[in-house]
Design goal:
The chain is α/β, with parallel strands linked by helices. The protein contains eight helices and five strands.
């Protein structure tokens, strides 16, 4: 990664990892963070919903308490606003590389695709909360819902989302595909239905090749 020119403040990079539950994105995010720490001065690893004390409280409510879809959306965006203000924007201003486990693409996929929320409402909330902030690079870990379900069942008890049926997760997957079609310049699809070593190689290749993952 190339350093900034002398006297030029470094501009941070915002990288997100997306995919349905069971796609393996979280474990590959840790490998990506380790790879980046050898190349840039500061790497911040965070997640959504969550990343701040307030946002973590909202995450617990979203994952565990029954609510309607619109309430779910509003809580997710409230958590995102606090996360942006308290963690993401300050880190980017310092020139850090921010790695986030999910961001707004997950809202369009889960609440839009999975729950059937009005996309126009999501777009409006995205505009209000993010004020133009989008990731520089998004790695989308894609695999069939049935494969993801088998992986989840092998490792943990389900939360309120993970307990949804296969049809729900296929809608979420389709939501991610639609979002990738809208933002092709920042999305890189990772075929996650393969051995972890092959997936990890693709992740590191994407980080090395994409301008969104390099300091300037």
């Amino acid at each position: 990664m190339n350093p900034a020119a002398p006297g030029t403040p470094a501009r941070g990079r915002f990288l997100t990892f997306e995919g349905i539950d069971g796609a393996g994105k979280s474990s590959h995010l840790e490998a990506a963070a380790a790879w980046l720490r050898e190349r840039v001065p500061e790497v911040v690893v965070t997640r959504e919903p969550g990343g701040t004390p307030l946002a973590e409280l909202l995450r617990e409510a979203v994952l565990q308490r029954p609510m309607d879809a619109l309430t779910e959306v509003l809580l997710v965006f409230a958590a995102r606003r606090d996360h942006l203000q308290q963690v993401i924007e300050p880190a980017l201003a310092r020139g850090a590389v921010v790695l986030c486990d999910r961001f707004t693409d997950a809202t369009f996929a889960y609440q839009g695709g999975g729950r059937g929320c009005d996309t126009a409402q999501l777009v409006q909330l995205e505009s209000w909360v993010q004020q133009g902030r989008q990731p520089d690079l998004t790695l989308w870990f894609d695999l069939p819902a049935a494969v993801a379900a088998a992986r989840r069942a092998a490792v943990r008890a389900p939360d309120r989302f993970e307990a949804q049926d296969e049809a729900f997760f296929e809608r979420v997957r389709a939501g991610y595909a639609a979002r990738a079609g809208q933002w092709p310049q920042r999305f890189v699809r990772i075929d996650s239905d393969r051995p972890a070593v092959a997936v990890r190689a693709d992740v590191l290749e994407a980080l090395a090749a994409h301008p969104g993952a390099r300091s300037r």
